Amino acid sequence: MDPPGNFPLIVRGGGGVNLTHDHSTLSVQFRKSAVAAGDPTMYGRMPAGSAAWVDRPVNDAEPSVVRQQMNLDQANEVNHVLRNGGFWRFVCHNTNTGHFEAVRSERAFMSQKIDDNP
Predict the structure, then answer these.
(1) Which of 10-24, 58-72, 103-117 has the weakest average pLDDT?
(2) How many domains, the chain?
């Protein structure tokens, strides 16, 4: 279970995402989506290079950078996924120092509803 006060932030890769790694911390700078990420069937509504909370957009007072402690191999995996337009879920909180701090993260996948009706 995640510590209280941490929530999932979904980042959609593609143009507009800037990743840096300083040997211990990955920093991901993103644009703020005008729409909430929603559930995985709705992730595609977010523009490439943007991020949003599951239940709402990132607001104007919130940062547009998320940071997480991770090694270079982990950072390279995030970089690969986001550079190729994939999705990444950061479970994080606002530090009130200009960035979100992630306690954990993982690859996220967009899904599609399959309609059984012809």
Answers:
(1) 103-117
(2) 1
